[in-house]
Amino acid sequence: MTELSGLQIFKYLPGATKKENTNCKKCGFPTCMAFALNLAKNKADVKQCPYMPEALEILWIQNNKQPQNTVEINGIKIGGENVLYRHEKTFNNKCAIAIIIDTNKPNWEQKLETVKNFQIKRVNEILKVDLIIIKSDKKFEQKENIIWYNDFIKLPLKEIQDSDFATTSQELIKIRKKAILEKDENYSKPVYVYLKSCQDKELMCAKSAYYICKYANMLVFEDFDEHMLSALMTLRQNIYTDPQKPLQVESGIYEFNNPDKNSLIFLTTNFALTYFAVANELENLDISSYLIVTPSDGMSVLTAWSAEKITAETVAKIITNWDMANKIKNKKIIIPGLLSHMKKELEAKIPDFEFIVGTVNAFEIGDFVKNLLKRKEN
């Protein structure tokens, strides 16, 4: 069932049919059209119009039923999805990752500590195991992300045992389609896939990656493997970002390895993936450096240039605001290779500095710097 548009709603209202009570304002909006448009955007309630036809009201309520319930577990929300594909709008709650800790198994305490302490940092976000499920007859101190197995299985969730990949994947797709397209309340529970111990971690990782994409709300593992979880969390971070809101970092000047007035200066945009790719290379250099990050609305280098989000004026503003000409003795700024066509424009706008065309790819920075320093020595 597709969402009703403002025009589809308007044609049933008094304003479209030119009946009595046209634009009566009892809904709180100046016109019937304004009410219809706001209703389509979920900024108004269907009951605000006293003259709404009953058939349209029933259709609207049915059309706006929550396709999938949201369940909160110790602060972690799962479910609540209302689209099949994130480009339609966005996914709401990331697929949670949970680990089972069975206190009847050997070395369970060590496993618990390892799981609790596990984390990776990627694109300015700390990624951890979302939920630890304790299978035990004992009771001990309960932390925020810990739940007892007996409490977990009472939650309003749908479990799928991962016994066969084809069966599991087909079931996940069927449930999501029933929930989203048909809004069938029998399929409205969030779904988790229970993955039993498996020696073939590559196979488990491949299957789990598919389940994250289609359409598990949670993965529950008996095994804990740091490499597998790192890969899955990286994939999940990409899938569950809002496609309408690019990841970005704050613009400004960043320092690496305690720079001084003689340090190298690099330039890039504030697109998070670009920034962290460059930052990782600069951190691993044997020398110190500065990185100028331009305010580019989270766009990559070439996209920012084509949208005029990175210009000689924006670069000049940052350099002026930071008083870089007086603070830095080194008057050379290395720009991305994709911006080689901007070199003359930058030098004309910022005559105090020379602009050097750098690499197209971040991983080439190390070799580029070595060659640059050799040329300087010679």
Task: Characterise the protein shown here.
With 378 residues, this protein is of the alpha/beta class. The protein has three domains: 6-63, 3-methyladenine DNA Glycosylase II, Chain A, domain 3, CATH 1.10.15.40; 70-239, TIM Barrel; 252-377, 3-Layer(aba) Sandwich (Rossmann fold). It has helices spanning 6-10, 14-17, 32-40, 54-63, 108-117, 149-152, 165-181, 201-213, 226-239, 272-283, 301-306, 312-321, 324-327, 343-349, 365-377, and strands spanning 70-73, 76-79, 96-102, 119-122, 125-128, 131-135, 146-148, 158-161, 191-195, 218-221, 252-256, 264-269, 289-294, 332-335, 354-357. The strands form four sheets. Strands 7-6-3-10-9-8 form a six-stranded parallel beta sheet. A five-stranded mixed beta sheet has the order 11-13-12-14-15, sandwiched between helices. A two-stranded antiparallel sheet has the order 1-2. β8, α7 (165-181) and β9 (191-195) form a beta-alpha-beta unit. The radius of gyration is 28 Å and the shape is flat.
Kindly report the spatial arrangement of strands forming the biggest sheet: 7-6-3-10-9-8
Q: In the CATH hierarchy, what is the class of the largest domain?
A: Alpha Beta
| Number of beta strands | 15
The coarse silhouette is: flat
CATH topology of the largest domain: TIM Barrel
Unreliable stretches (pLDDT < 50, length at least 5) are none
Portion in beta strands: 15-25%
What's the overall average pLDDT, rounded? 89
Indicate the CATH architecture of the largest domain.
Alpha-Beta Barrel
